[in-house]
Write a structure and sequence with these properties.
The protein folds into 2 domains: about 1-50, no CATH class; about 120-260, Sortase (Sortase, Chain: A). The chain is α+β, with helices and mostly antiparallel strands and about 260 residues long. About 25% of the residues lie in helices and about 25% in strands.
């Protein structure tokens, strides 16, 4: 009832005038006030629809993030990391002299995460449910070049940086937004919008040339939108992955950088 009255020029409860000789007279708005009222109602509805249209990918990503079982994510990421970085140790064959005691059937592991080593260049951030293709060697200084990539909801790999597996002293720089994007572009490439939920020791998986590389977050920074110094950031003792997104979420005022070290 309240919402219905909000969009009615003459709601259920109206102002009344009591005139001595005329009785009760309802005070209804003039015709020009009605035009202003309905025009304002239209603008309000149009604005609400526009906000939902622009930011719906962010809202959907946030809802999916809230539904992720983080304990399962931790188990599966550790399992994937072990499978890709640790070779199985052969065990000696033992002669069984007695019948072994039956043991309880182990609980099955959760369904594996959608991560598999392939020739496709991809990034998977299990904590926030992000899984996207990466386009290698995209110039961060050519608007025409990187906008073609970002418009297709693909993460861009900076041509000024290294690639996964290049070793200590190198950095792979990935970005999904730029300072040249406008408000409507908030619908595009929402994959990194939830990077603000990442914390130290969270894991990031990158599939490149048939191998999965695991990186562990160790630092976050908020920088100015025009600051490009970190495009060439390195640490001689670490192989680093840097992820860039716009900050605050849904704007392009600043940049959030997430730093992760290969493990």
């Amino acid at each position: 009832m309240v919402l219905n009255n909000f969009f009615k020029i003459t709601p259920e409860k109206r102002r009344v005038k009591i005139i001595k000789n005329g009785g009760v007279i309802y005070s209804n708005p003039r015709w020009w006030k009605k035009i202003i009222f309905y025009f304002g109602s239209f603008l309000t509805l149009f604005s609400l629809v526009g906000i939902l249209y622009i930011y719906s990918p962010i809202m959907v990503s946030w809802l999916r993030y809230k539904l992720i079982d983080q304990s399962r994510v931790l188990v599966e990421v550790r399992k994937i990391t072990q499978q890709n970085n640790i070779l199985p140790t052969p065990t000696a064959i033992q002669t069984m002299t007695t019948t072994p005691e039956p043991t309880a059937r182990p609980e099955p592991l959760p369904t594996p995460l959608p991560v598999a080593a392939s020739d496709e260049f991809r990034i998977n951030i299990p904590k926030i449910g992000a899984d996207n293709k990466i386009q290698a060697n995209v110039s961060p200084y050519s608007k025409e070049e990187y906008m073609k990539v970002l418009k297709n909801n693909v993460v861009a790999h900076s041509s000024e940086s290294s690639l996964p597996g290049d070793g200590k002293g190198t950095t792979a720089y990935l970005f999904a937004h730029s300072s040249q994007q406008g408000v409507l572009d908030a619908r595009d490439n929402a994959v990194f919008y939830l990077l603000g939920e990442m914390n130290d020791n969270d894991d990031i998986l990158v599939s490149y040339k048939g191998k999965i590389f695991t990186y562990r977050v160790y630092m976050e920074k908020i920088i100015k939108s025009k600051d490009t110094d970190y495009l060439n950031y390195t640490d001689k003792d670490k192989e680093i992955l840097i992820l860039q997104t716009c900050w605050p979420i849904g704007t392009n005022w600043q940049r959030l950088l997430v730093f992760a070290e290969r493990i």
